[in-house]
């Protein structure tokens, strides 16, 4: 953003608040590209109007981001309603080279797992906004009321209703422990080795009995239209796929939505991203995004 870079104060504001605003927009939308666009537009509006009149920059920018997210969600509601197959959020992929990036450091502390983002989708747009502003950003109800345009009493009621709906405890979401992350990485690597073997029995060892496989093709490529339940069905399906397309794919284990996941390549192009929900020492849910529109930002 050259215009912002020319102004030291606006550049400082950009560096300071960009990670927080991206996290807010991404959790609202489940779209990396839309979240990036909205955050960029928000800072451009500050660049045009100036910052002298703004008393609380964090709240001001949050209000812009929330309002633009709500506008986008309402305008695309029909698209979501007619979405082909199961909808999954765009995967947020980070690599070791991103570790020094302030955005990466901030997001590692946030709850952005695929499972959590799907939980948020159960809420109405306004419930989602109020919940995130209170739970993730620790705003008080008067501040939230100013941002969403409702009374503080109403915001308090919305938050508690949303929290009951999600059935989360006061301390959730929690940051994933580093040691757990290493264990999950090892589990994912072993699972991918089993998958490459095409042996259903080996694959099944890494899945919980009640495992669920969810894929998102968006009607653009072939995908399972509904979640697949049970470790036997999932292992047989994935083993069959591996046997059908041997040696055509390669992959790398990396961080997907703040947790160990996999990016799969076909002819050096990203063809899918897999994220996992682990229960104990087994994989309980697999989320596979193959919709090419949701993979454009992944490298």
Summarize the topology.
Layout: H1 2-5, H2 8-29, H3 32-49, H4 57-75, H5 77-81, E1 93-94, H6 102-108, H7 114-120, H8 125-136, H9 141-148, H10 152-166, H11 178-197, H12 200-204, E2 207-216, E3 228-229, H13 231-244, E4 249-256, E5 259-266, E6 269-279, E7 282-289
Parallel strand pairs: 2-7
Antiparallel strand pairs: 1-4, 2-3, 4-5, 5-6, 6-7
How does this structure look, described?
It is a single chain. The chain is of the alpha+beta class and 299 residues long. Helix content is 52%, strand content 16%. The chain is built from 13 helices and 7 strands. The protein has helices at 2-5, 8-29, 32-49, 57-75, 77-81, 102-108, 114-120, 125-136, 141-148, 152-166, 178-197, 200-204, 231-244; strands at residues 93-94, 207-216, 228-229, 249-256, 259-266, 269-279, 282-289. A hairpin with a 2-residue loop joins strand 6 (269-279) and strand 7. Helix 2 (8-29) packs parallel to helix 6. The longest helix is centred in the first third of the chain and has 22 residues, at 8-29. It is elongated and about 65 Å long. It starts with a helix and ends in a 10-residue tail after the last strand.
């Amino acid at each position: 953003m050259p215009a912002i870079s020319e102004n030291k104060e606006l550049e400082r504001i950009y560096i300071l608040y960009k990670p927080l605003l991206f996290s807010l927009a991404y959790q609202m939308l489940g779209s990396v590209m839309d979240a990036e666009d909205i955050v960029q537009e928000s800072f451009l509006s500050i660049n045009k109007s100036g910052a002298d009149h703004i008393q609380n920059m964090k709240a001001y920018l949050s209000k812009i981001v929330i309002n633009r997210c709500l506008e986008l969600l309402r305008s695309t509601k029909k698209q979501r309603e007619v979405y082909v197959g199961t909808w999954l959020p765009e995967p947020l992929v980070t690599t070791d080279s991103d570790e020094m990036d302030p955005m990466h450091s901030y997001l590692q502390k946030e709850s952005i797992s695929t499972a959590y983002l799907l939980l948020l989708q159960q809420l109405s747009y306004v419930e989602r906004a109020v919940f995130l502003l209170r739970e993730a950003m620790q705003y008080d109800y008067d501040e939230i009321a100013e941002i969403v345009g409702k009374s503080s009493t109403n915001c308090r009621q919305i938050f508690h209703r949303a929290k009951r709906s999600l059935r989360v405890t006061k301390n959730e979401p929690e940051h994933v422990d580093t040691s757990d992350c290493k264990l999950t990485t090892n589990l994912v690597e072993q699972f991918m080795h089993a998958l490459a073997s095409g042996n259903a029995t080996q694959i099944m060892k890494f899945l919980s009995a009640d495992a669920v496989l969810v894929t998102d093709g968006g009607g653009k490529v072939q995908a399972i239209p509904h979640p697949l339940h049970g470790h036997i069905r999932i292992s047989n399906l994935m083993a069959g796929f591996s046997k059908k397309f041997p040696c055509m794919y390669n992959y790398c284990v990396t961080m997907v939505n703040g947790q160990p996941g996999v990016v799969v390549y076909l002819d050096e192009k990203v063809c899918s991203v897999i994220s996992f929900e682990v229960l104990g020492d087994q994989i309980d849910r697999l989320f596979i995004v193959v919709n090419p529109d949701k993979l454009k930002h992944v490298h």
